[in-house]
Amino acid sequence: MQPAGPWTPEQAAVLERAAASGDVKVVAFAGTGKTTTLEGIAREALPRRRILYLAFNRTVAEEARHRFPAWVTARTPHALAYAAVGYRYRSRLVTTPLALRRALEERLPHSLRVLQGFGRRRAAAAFAVLETLEAFCRSDAALPGPAHVPAWLVGALPEAEQAGFAAAAAQAARSAWRALTDPAATLPVTHDVYLKLWQLSRPRLPFDAILFDEAQDADPVVRALLLDQPVPRVVVGDPYQQLYAWRGAVNALQAFPGPELALTRSWRFGPAVAATANRILDILGERRRLVGGGPATATVLDRPDLGLETAVLTRSNAGAVAAALERLDKGRKVAVAGGVAHLVRLVEAAYAFSRGEPARHPDLLAFNDWQELEMMAETELGSGFRPVVQLVHDYGRQLPEVTRRLATATVPPSAAEVTIATVHRAKGGEWDHVRLWDDFPPFARTAGDGTVRIDRAEAHLWYVAVTRARRRLNLAGLGPRLEDSLRRARQAVYNG
């Protein structure tokens, strides 16, 4: 956390620009005091103005509500949309678009038969429509179109059939959209549906300025909503902590107008951690340097488990389960970021489902059998099921005992000696002693033709992981993997 004291020159420049009532976008690297800067804008640059602080996470918005001055309204985009539109659909709300699957099969049998004509099973046809609808709801388009049909679905067909399939899927999605948005209908509605409806109504928000936090994760529907507002916008984010490219949040900061300023001094960690982060940023094309202004004694190690970590960060949920079990075996008090209750219920139901028992979890009701679930887990829409499928495959008959231990042996974070977190859950967090689990894959690989391919999404995850540490970062054997990726990536950049 940034200590009390005068603003840095970088922060002062941001406040000065905001006070001039103009748009500004701020690249705020890890730990550089972005929330403190936004609070300063509200108190000093825009005092007594009607300000909207917008964040994606409800917990973050709630914290801002207590931290920011009274003239700031802190909300999530979905909270604003629900108050304006979503409440009309409250009796039909569901948390997953998969709940629509049965309704689509009943309401759009002809459209699904057309898609089945391309060699798709009925379930796969319904999933194609659902994925197209989801992509549309995240977009700034007025209606679903062929561009919203997932490329992986279209690309799996012979080239001669691709345009016809995309057109048929888009037409089915348009029919589904009309049915979904009929106030008199009974079809299930997701939260993204009413957010999209609200954006299409082009609302004017009753504020004098907007502060948009974590803007790197903005998808086109939220960007369109904000770009429609005739007031100054301060958008803040770290493009290298952008972990949701599949939602359309690619280079989201660049879509906003205004000059670009940067916050580069991190108060979280010292020079050693900053140097590791800068090496990753360098191969991503970033030329600004992250400055470690935190504890000068902070270190980066690459040693076996020292038993000193206060957090273990994993790439996957399966890795989080394995890390938690290992520490429980050593008698340590373990917390799992985000809790385990939801994961335990879903994994237990998925295990039973894999053994031929009926689906008894709401998220599984859309599937006729385990094979359909496995198929869906390979799609973007079903990517949330991949960890569950992986856990069932990895642990098999041991899974009931694994989930029992997780449910009964883990403790709340306040009572824990060590917290286990996936990188996605760890984003925004920080711990004194961080150890990385061994499930982080390389982010640069050499293909069969000799070309090096950089997986930017994986590089972002590495960057987020290493920048969670305040005093000690332990790569715990991943050092050679990181060095190999950096070497290959530098070769690709040099040759490119």
From TrEMBL:
Domain UvrD-like helicase ATP-binding, residue spans: 7-291
Keyword terms: ATP-binding, Helicase, Hydrolase, Isomerase, Nucleotide-binding
Protein name: DNA 3'-5' helicase
Catalytic reaction list: Couples ATP hydrolysis with the unwinding of duplex DNA by translocating in the 3'-5' direction; ATP + H2O = ADP + phosphate + H(+)
Species in which this protein is naturally found: Candidatus Hydrogenisulfobacillus filiaventi
GO molecular function (one): ATP binding
Chain segments annotated as coiled-coil in the UniProt record: none
This protein's record includes keyword Hydrolase: yes
GO BP annotations listed: double-strand break repair via homologous recombination; replication fork processing
EC number: 5.6.2.4
Matches recorded under InterPro entries: DNA_helicase_UvrD-like_C, DNA_helicase_UvrD/REP, P-loop_NTPase, UvrD-like_ATP-bd
Domain of life: Bacteria
Keyword Nucleotide-binding: yes
Positions annotated to bind ATP: 28-35
Pfam families linked to this entry: AAA_19, UvrD_C
